[in-house]
Specification:
Blueprint: E1 5-9, H1 16-26, E2 37-42, H2 44-52, E3 58-62, H3 79-84, E4 89-92, H4 95-100, H5 105-117, E5 121-126, H6 130-134, H7 138-149, H8 155-160, E6 162-165, H9 179-196, H10 199-204, E7 206-210, H11 218-222, E8 229-232, H12 239-248
Parallel strand pairs: 1-2, 1-8, 2-3, 3-4, 4-5, 5-6, 6-7, 7-8
This protein binds 2-phosphoglycolic acid.
Length: 251
């Protein structure tokens, strides 16, 4: 019943020419948006050129935004700047931003509120480090992230939210979590949403897995009951692979 959502996170890759080459190769090959939501999270400077060529079934998102409406925040981008150029999604709390750019649970929470205020669809990233997993802290870490990040969001908003479970140890390392581990932790996220909200909200919310997802492992991940999609870094940079990854959600 939950519509699958496959998203590519380009991180700090692709010049304008490379972005154009990609969008021309994929935009008319995406499955119908009624069946799969397909999104590319691209660097700010290419967002407009991608939005113009996104076609019927692909949507474009930003990898971050500021939580203020406007102001003296050199180097930052406000939510209405994104919507004014046709961006419809925003990634919030990616572990690279949490680790390297001082993103906190508090700022993630403010950004989620602002995303909903501006009709941007947010994907919130959560996940544990290797050390935390080895010390059996995975559930505690994720529970705390969810409590803080979702603070004061309404049930209706949380139903529209997408959460990406991204174990930090699996990002860009080639070490994918086994499908069982990924499903178990996504199941824990769903249970936590049921506890913080209710069963109906937990059934509605979509949860992606992210971390070294590629053409060779997406089928097994998508077959898991608690996994509704994937957030893909490295493997989303090649047009052919991205098309295959999105189509995997149709099976
Ligand atoms: P990866 O990145 O697929 O390259 O591991 C995933 C992510 O950071 O979203």
């Amino acid at each position: 019943m939950r519509k699958p959502i496959i998203a590519g996170n380009w991180k700090m890759f692709k010049t304008r020419d490379e972005a154009l080459q990609f969008i021309y190769a994929v935009s008319d090959k995406m499955p119908e948006k009624e069946k799969v939501e397909s999104v590319i999270f691209a660097p700010f400077v290419v967002l407009r050129c991608l939005v113009k060529r996104q076609g019927e079934n692909l949507r474009i998102g930003a990898q971050n935004m500021h939580f203020e409406e406007q102001g003296a925040f050199t180097g930052e981008v406000a939510p209405n700047m994104l919507t004014s150029i046709g961006v419809t999604y925003v990634l919030i709390g990616h572990s690279e931003r949490r680790a390297m750019f001082n993103e906190t649970d508090e700022s993630c929470n403010k950004k989620l509120h602002q995303a909903f205020n501006h009709d941007l669809k947010p994907i919130l990233c959560v996940g544990e480090s290797l050390e935390q997993r080895e010390n059996n802290l995975t559930e505690k870490v994720i529970y705390n992230q969810l409590v803080e990040d979702l603070k004061s969001l309404t049930k209706e908003q949380v139903k529209e939210l997408v959460i990406a479970y991204e174990p930090i140890w699996a990002i860009g390392t080639g070490k994918t979590a086994t499908a069982e581990i990924a499903d178990e932790t996504c199941g824990f996220i769903r249970k936590t949403v049921a506890k913080l909200y209710d069963e109906e909200t937990a059934e509605a919310i979509r949860i992606q897995y992210g971390g070294s997802v590629k053409v060779s492992n997406i089928d097994e991940l998508m077959a898991q009951p608690n996994i509704d999609g994937a957030l893909i870094g490295g493997a989303s940079l090649k047009a052919d692979d991205f098309i295959t990854l999105v189509k995997a959600a149709l099976k």
